[in-house]
Amino acid sequence: MRKSLLLVFLIISVVSLFSANLFAQEDQANKVDYTFTLKSDCLPEPVEITSGSFMEGEVFTLPPFDFPEYIPNWQQLYNALVGTTFGLESGAINENIHLDIQLQQLDCNGGGFVDPTGEGNPFFVFLGIKVTGEQSGETALEDFYYFNEGKYATICFPMTPEFLAFLESMGIDPNDISFAYFLGGEYFTEGMTWEVVEGNPDKLCLYLSHFSQIVGGNGKLVGIAGKDKNIPKDYFLDQNYPNPFNPSTVIKFGLPNAENVKLEIYNLLGQKVDELINAKLSAGVHEVTFNADNLPSGIYLYKLTTDKFSEIKKMMLMK
Question: Does an H or E element contain 21, and which?
Answer without folding.
Answer: helix 2-27
